[in-house]
Amino acid sequence: MSIDSPHPTTPRTAGPLDVERLIQDLTLEEKASLTSGLDFWHTQPIDRPGAQVPSVMLTDGPHGLRKQDEAADHLGLNNSVPATCFPTAVTLGSTWDVELVQRVGQALGRETRANDVAVLLGPGVNIKRSPLCGRNFEYFSEDPVISGDLGAALIQGVQSQGVGTSIKHFAANNQETDRMRVSADVDERTLREIYLTGFERAITRAAPWTVMCAYNKINGTYASQNHWLLTEVLREEWGYDGVVVSDWGAVTDRVPALAAGLDLEMPASGGRTDAEIVAAVRSGALDEAVLDQAVRRHLTLLNRSLPARTSPGSYDEAAHHALAREAAADGAVLLRNENVDGVPALPLDPAGAASLAVIGEFARTPRYQGAGSSQVRPTMLDDALSQIRALTGTEVPFAAGFTTTATPDAGADAALLTEAVDLARGAETVVLFLGLPASHESEGIDRDTMDLPANQVALLAAVAAVCARVVVVLANGSAVTTSPWQDQTAAILEGWLGGQAGGGAVADLLFGVRTPSGKLTETIPLRLEDNASYGNFPGEFGHVRYGEGVLVGYRYYDAKRMAVAYPFGHGLSYTTFGYSDLAVTVTGAGPTASVQASVVVTNTGGVAGAEVAQVYVGDPQAAVLRPERELKAFAKVTLAPGESRTLTFDLDARDLSYWHPVLRRWVVEGGEFVVSVGASSRDLREASSITVVGEDITPPLTADSTLSEALAHPVAGEILRAAMAQAGDAAGAMPLDEGMMVLAGGMPLKVIASFDGMLFDQSQLDALIQAANPS
Ligand code: BGC
After folding, report:
1. CA separation for the pair 662, 653 (Å, rounded)
2. Given 97, 178, 247, 274, the catalytic residue
3. Does the CB atom of residue 254 touch ligand 1 within 6 A?
4. Which helix or strand (DSSP H or E) is residue 250 part of?
5. Residue 39 is a catalytic residue
6. Which of 53, 266, 284, 653 is the most exposed place for a label (fewest CB within 10 A)?
7. Reduced 3-state DSSP string for 595-659
8. Burial profile 538-572: b = 16 or more Cβ within 10 angstroms, e = fewer
9. Does the beta carbon of 247 lie inside 6 Å of ligand 1?
10. Residue 485: CB within 6 Å of ligand 1?
11. Separation of alpha carbons 534 and 521, rounded Å
């Protein structure tokens, strides 16, 4: 398919723009115009003798192209051109497959290019802080390593096709409630270790052409006006040199936003905010060099997009549909697979389809993508019921069982329930399709429960009462609780929102055409109340407090030794895998420390399958509270029955570090570390303890340091011990024996100095601090 529909106002430039000449030649007004939108989706062009700057289109994203062909809006209300609806991020995340996600990215890039779009707005790498976030389907994980690595893979794939991406929403946009105003109140260590790491990994590895700043505030400052975030962290620390674009409508005050590092305001403001930029430069309130830099980045992006704009190319719809099916299958997670009559409930035998019944509206009317700005108009759509019938060659009977309307009509449901139970009674196996109705999760709203709708839970109970083998297939973008009903099932296949080919993928998995290999990138807790953010989410009066700190997702459940329904990293297969021969070596020390871990993974079962080996690192003794273990690396490997493969993982100092809240940098604190490898965060098969030589992490000595801290300081400690020995010898001196140290140890030095004759006076303290902190 190829659609060549350049925006009417786009001057077709013959070659690359001469960026520096344009910056010199353009008027102030023209330069300001290049830093905001023309309309909903396009940048502003310049078309006059001597200055030709094209207008390009940026559009959603992330799991399919949403190029609107009619009136534009950003809520998915108006129709868009057909495009492959790939599985949503929750599904892609659950593949844990960097290579596959990269291939999906390439396909997305081809469609973006063929449609004359310069930048696809995605991926979203925000952390799933709460299972209630209505946009969790658009995010990869509760963990920053997998979010960052899969985000990087998608970016690399898309950008390999000559079009750009926009990693979003930077940063700490972890809820939909009040998303345009709320201040995410997060301490720096938590930001760095949890909420920024995914962005950092993806941005530094894959260099997205654009970064989209979030709507929300971070510690009181809008992301769009946050100089620390957009300039100090993003550009100065991470070396980012692309364009920062606002989320649609995220700019509150344009001049401070530009000064903070926001290059492009979207959508158009009708010239109003361009005039503000011009006035600010004229009055001297804004340095013109800041505007020039934003223009430079924008023009550079236009040059990057030139080859694609001049030759859009085409794509193969059928091949993309097949890729969508592969990705949906590999992202589905087999949560449970119990034995019934001595054999696992799944896979089903296609030859036994005569005794099968399919129940649940979602089998016929698939729920395959989320609502909001990411909503794609698919090129085709597979439903599971037709796919099961096609695969088995049997007209498998079906009953809807429930309606998917937000407020199910009890009367109608009663009739549907009776029909479904009658069907189930005669079946040996029921495949029951349950999930979240579209109205339950969407961009713009958060859920208030993690539970499946009551009418579906009631249906399951009624069906399970008459059939011993009930296989539940779930369709949902955010995790749902399974503990209230899972004992009534023989198997649970979490299909997530699998995109336009999700129905076929489910059929493939049910009948063993493919072996499940997806794993959870988020914990499914026993109950919503167990989640770390419970009580702090979604905040009130414009503030949401990230009170759980770094203990997000599995980090919290592990710290609290809490039972969960399914742990982070969990996912079953139709085969089994063994782990052996973990070998871990350390080289270097402190900031140059590195660790290599190798392990042998063997397919110990009877069919081919893929395993996701996960490497976790724990730092049992540290000066700060650290999670018990954290994911640092992973690899997906496909193995034939009996086949073994040695996997090698290279970890660097950063993988051992924490963000030091006082030194305000990453530090490797020396001591013991535990490297474990396994099939999930709670199915660790091999572990090894290593000793790493750390770096000096002594914080600077100040008048606020305590006596104990001063005694532990390499320089001050020595001086103080000598002084204390001398004081001990002096007649009448207050002895600092063990008993006194209990009291005095926690005293700030300035308090001790204020006590007449205690150990040192103010001028001696000044000298001590100077000796301890030579400049
Ligand atoms: C969303 C973004 C999206 C943009 C354009 C915003 O409301 O938060 O993710 O890319 O709209 O549709």
Report:
1. 19
2. 247
3. no
4. none
5. no
6. 284
7. EEEEEEEEECCCCCEEEEEEEEEECCCCCCCCCCCEEEEEEEEEECCCCEEEEEEEEEHHHHCEE
8. bbeeebbebebbbbbbbbbbbbeeeebbbbbbbbb
9. yes
10. no
11. 19
Distance CA 749, CA 770 (A): 14
Distance 216 CA to ligand 1 centre (A): 13
**Phi, psi (degrees; rounded to nearest 5) at 276:** -65, -40
Check if 138 has its Cβ closer than 6 Å to any atom of ligand 1: no
d(CA 151, CA 167): 8
Q: Which two tokens stand for residue 508?
A: 């493939």
Q: Could you identify the atom of ligand 1 that is nearest to the CA of residue 138?
A: 9
Cis peptide leading into 312, omega within 30 of 0? Answer: no
CA 364 to chain centroid: 31
Distance 119 CA to ligand 1 centre (A): 13
Any residues with CB less than 8 A from the CB of 727 and at least 6 apart, and which? 733, 734, 736, 759
577-692 is a CATH 3.30.450.20 domain: no
Mutate-to-test residue for ligand 1 from 40, 42, 60, 177, highest number of ligand atoms within 8 A of CB: 60
Show the tokens assigned to 671.
Answer: 């001591």
Which atom, in ligand 1's list, is nearest to the CA of 66? 12
The full set of domain ranges for the chain reads: 26-55+240-311, 324-519, 577-692, 707-772
Output the pTM of the full model.
Answer: 0.96
Q: Give nearest CA residue, ligand 1 atom 2.
A: 247
Mean pLDDT by 10 residues, the chain (775 residues): 43 81 98 98 97 97 89 64 98 98 98 98 98 98 98 98 98 97 98 98 98 98 98 98 98 98 97 98 98 98 97 97 98 98 96 95 97 94 98 98 69 86 97 95 95 96 97 98 98 98 98 98 98 97 98 98 98 98 98 98 98 98 96 98 98 98 97 98 98 94 94 92 77 64 90 89 94 87
Q: Residue length, the chain? A: 775
Name which residue sits closest to atom 8 of ligand 1, judged by CA. 247
Ligand 1 midpoint to CA 452 (Å): 27
Query: What pLDDT score does 610 carry?
Result: 98
Q: Is the CB of 248 under 6 A from ligand 1?
A: yes
Show the DSSP H helices in 452-495 as ranges.
454-464
Closest alpha carbon to 601 in 559, 648, 560, 547:
648
CA-nearest residue for atom 5, ligand 1, is 74
Which two three-digit tokens encode residue 424? 């189930």
Indicate which residue's Cα is closest to atom 4 of ligand 1: 248
Pseudo-torsion of CA 88, 89, 92, 97, nearest 10°?
Answer: 160
Q: Is the CB of 168 under 6 A from ligand 1?
A: yes
Q: Can you list the pairs that 253-258 forms with residues at least 24 positions away whose Cβ atoms lie under 8 Å? A: 253/222, 253/225, 254/36, 255/280, 255/285, 255/286, 256/225, 257/222, 257/224, 257/225, 258/35, 258/286, 258/290, 258/291, 258/294
Burial of 19 (0-12, 13-18, 19+ CB in 10 A): middle
Q: Return d(Cα 36, Cα 245) in angstroms, integer.
A: 9
